[in-house]
Amino acid sequence: MHGLTRRLIAVAAVAATIVTAAPSAAQAGRKSPYVTVGYFTQWGIYGRNFQLSKVQDSGAAARLTHLNYAFGPVTADGVCASADPWADWQTPFPAELSVDGVGDVAGQPIAGNLNQLAELKARNPKLKVLISLGGWTGSAFFSDAVLTDASRKKLVSSCVDLWIKGNLPGLPAGVAAGIFDGIDLDWEWPGSEGNAGNVIRPEDRANFTALVAEFRRQLGKKHLLTAFLPAAPAKVEAGFENKIFKYLDFGTVQGYDFHGSWENRSNQQSSIFVPRGAPDNPDFSADVAINAWLAKGAKRSQLVLGVPYYSQGWTGITSGGDGRFATATGPAPGIFAAGTEDYKTVKNLPGFRLHRDWRAGNSWLFDGTTFWTYDDPAQMLQKTVYIRARGLGGAMMWSLDGDDDRASLTRAIAAGLATRG
């Protein structure tokens, strides 16, 4: 057993007690060398009823260094646009749902989530806010938009104009200037399959480098530039050149969806290491993903490990035992989608037994029929040990609306990364 594995297992003895309490005032006041990046979903204000005021009131905002607002799509015309102007800058928030406790009024310069982001930054002056471009359903036209030098310049200029300069359609020029501190690129994926129908080309690999270089040129050093990066070594090789990190402040590495309910066998979706007895070879894990990026020459400090605030689930398991690596009949039922469920919901499911594999860094719930693989606060603390041991840049969370009202997962991550230890 190597030293890192011993350290990760040893933390199990104290994890549960440490992470259930908030950091002390002394801990919270120390400057951490790590970033903590949380994604806020634009559409979460609807069915999920999750507003930015909850990020503030739960204590999550005070424990984040960066907040990524998801998503801004790239259109078929090769420019940046809003996926939902009503959510972004039009919908008014009443006092009880507003970050500053004051309701929006008719005639104010800007409303919507962007105004709430401005209020969140006013309450948390050190928080950096980025607009995330693309996402799973918003990446269809990246390949076309970056095909030539002229098209790249056109795309980047439109993104800077809309999101950084704040020139929103139908509103006074610059009305949203200063809300976003930078841009996060979520092209899923250059050179390899993402959502069905996405345009893909072999040239995407070189063009992604040219794109980040153009973003850096137009953004300058004042604004941040980050990117969401895949976990699969094949996707890493197909879409990304080593030199992208010359232009990025950091990259967030997908640390989840290693397995899911699209398969017919229960498994882990976010394990630190590949579990013993795993049926797939090769298999995915956080360590596999990080090593793939290190092999490309990435600096450890520029790699930020992504962690999930949701679970992957299967049902129809009849083989007994602890339920892991068992044949399932289909995805477990979920509130918003079959096979996925928020941490805040899964943690309260009755009749389930908690199982842990501390050696692999993986936990799951099983009731004899239904299986949920998920990360709880103790598991998040173990991941912060891994982040520190590997010298990585921090943690990224997808997405904040999956946490509970106390921001237990975010508190655990912040506590684990509060000091170098």
What's the name of the CATH homologous superfamily?
Glycosidases
- N→C terminal distance: 22 Å
Helix fraction? Answer: 25-40%
In N-to-C order, the SSE pattern is HHHEHEHHEHHEHEHEHEEEEHEEEHEH
Helical run tally: 14
Structure, described:
The chain is an alpha/beta fold. It has a single domain (3-309, 377-416), classed as TIM Barrel (Alpha-Beta Barrel), CATH 3.20.20. It has helices spanning 3-10, 12-19, 25-29, 52-57, 85-90, 112-123, 142-145, 149-164, 204-219, 233-239, 286-295, 343-346, 377-390, 408-416; strands at 35-41, 66-72, 128-134, 182-186, 224-229, 250-253, 303-308, 310-315, 330-331, 340-342, 353-357, 362-366, 371-374, 394-398. It has an eight-stranded parallel barrel with strand order 1-2-3-4-5-6-7-14, surrounded by four helices. Strands 8, 9, 10, 11, 12 and 13 form a six-stranded antiparallel sheet that branches. α2 (12-19) crosses α13 and α8 packs across α9. It is globular. It starts with a helix and ends in a 5-residue tail after the last helix. Residues 12-30 have low confidence and may be disordered. Residues 1-28 form the signal peptide. Belongs to the glycosyl hydrolase 18 family. Its EC number is 3.2.1.14.
How is the secondary structure organized here?
Blueprint: H1 3-10, H2 12-19, H3 25-29, E1 35-41, H4 52-57, E2 66-72, H5 85-90, H6 112-123, E3 128-134, H7 142-145, H8 149-164, E4 182-186, H9 204-219, E5 224-229, H10 233-239, E6 250-253, H11 286-295, E7 303-308, E8 310-315, E9 330-331, E10 340-342, H12 343-346, E11 353-357, E12 362-366, E13 371-374, H13 377-390, E14 394-398, H14 408-416
Helix pairs in contact: 1-13, 2-13, 8-9, 13-14
Family: Belongs to the glycosyl hydrolase 18 family.
GO molecular function: chitin binding; endochitinase activity
Signal peptide: 1-28
